[in-house]
């Protein structure tokens, strides 16, 4: 059997140390951290967060360009940490088109409280977004399936959805047995923009009628 997830292992340790089964709340930031004024945005906004700690988990810019075609009634902003765009020159065109919001991690909460939706790679930014309560769609590598995401239903945030390719080698924790596609894991390369659009539309309570991909 696959080992327990990272959170599951911590819960098992807590039970072993205390002799009591831990009470598992839904994952969310403490209310004291959410008592900030939402950022003022001119229009309803969808945030794209395409960057991860390594490029092997990042869908290509073309993936995000396709996503953008489905959300033309929203402002779309590219969310980046300091230096992300400079380190990923292939995303500069996307950053210029939509505008990049580049700020430290600790300053993201007001923005999340105002956004309609965050679509993000499996990253610290994605986890922070999901814990803030904003509808969050994670574009995840199957490499970490069963280790981090999807969370177990008993503590998964209700506002989080996870898109991951169905791979026989899931849960490899980055010890990939398949050739990379460029700098990406094969499981990341197999993520379909149309599937992401369908899930995002569901999260926004909007109809998903036909494919936007020609």
Please report which band the strand proportion falls in: under 5%, 5-15%, 15-25%, 25-35%, 35-45% or over 45%: 5-15%
Uncertain regions: pLDDT < 50 for 5+ in a row? none
Largest sheet, strands/sense/barrel: 6 strands, parallel
Q: How many domain regions?
A: 1
- Tally the beta strands: 6
Radius of gyration, in angstroms, nearest whole number: 18 Å
Q: What is the helix/strand order?
A: HEHEHHEHEHEEHH
Separation, N- and C-terminal Cα atoms: 41 Å
Task: Give an account of the 3D structure.
The protein is α/β, with parallel strands linked by helices and 214 residues long. The protein has a single domain (36-203), classed as Glycogen Phosphorylase B (Rossmann fold), CATH 3.40.50. It is 28% helix and 14% strand. It has helices spanning 6-18, 61-68, 84-87, 92-98, 109-112, 124-132, 186-189, 193-203, and strands at residues 45-49, 75-80, 100-102, 117-121, 136-140, 160-164. Strands 3-2-1-4-5-6 form a six-stranded parallel β-sheet, sandwiched between helices. α2 (61-68) crosses α8 (193-203). It starts with 5 loop residues before the first helix and ends in an 11-residue tail after the last helix. The model has no long low-confidence stretch (mean pLDDT 90).
Element layout with pairings:
Elements: H1 6-18, E1 45-49, H2 61-68, E2 75-80, H3 84-87, H4 92-98, E3 100-102, H5 109-112, E4 117-121, H6 124-132, E5 136-140, E6 160-164, H7 186-189, H8 193-203
Parallel strand pairs: 1-2, 1-4, 2-3, 4-5, 5-6
Concise structural overview:
By secondary structure, the protein is α/β, with parallel strands linked by helices.
């Amino acid at each position: 059997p696959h080992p327990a997830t990272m959170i599951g292992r911590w819960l098992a340790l807590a039970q072993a140390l205390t002799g009591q089964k831990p009470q598992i709340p839904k994952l969310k930031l403490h209310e004291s951290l959410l008592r900030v004024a939402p950022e003022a945005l001119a229009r309803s906004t969808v945030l794209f967060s395409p960057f991860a700690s390594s490029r092997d988990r990042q869908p290509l810019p073309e993936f995000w360009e396709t996503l953008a075609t489905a959300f033309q009634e929203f402002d779309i902003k590219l969310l980046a940490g300091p230096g992300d765009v400079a380190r990923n020159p292939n995303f500069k065109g996307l950053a210029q088109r939509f505008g990049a919001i580049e700020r430290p991690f600790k300053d993201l909460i007001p923005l999340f409280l105002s956004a309609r939706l965050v679509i993000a790679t499996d990253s610290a930014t994605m986890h922070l977004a999901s814990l803030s309560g904003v509808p969050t769609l994670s574009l995840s590598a199957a490499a970490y399936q069963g280790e981090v995401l999807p969370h177990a239903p008993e503590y998964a945030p209700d506002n989080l959805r996870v898109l991951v390719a169905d791979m026989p080698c899931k849960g490899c924790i980055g010890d990939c047995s398949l050739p990379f596609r460029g700098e990406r894991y094969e499981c990341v390369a197999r993520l379909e923009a149309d599937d992401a659009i369908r899930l995002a539309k569901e999260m926004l309570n909007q109809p998903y009628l036909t494919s936007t991909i020609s």
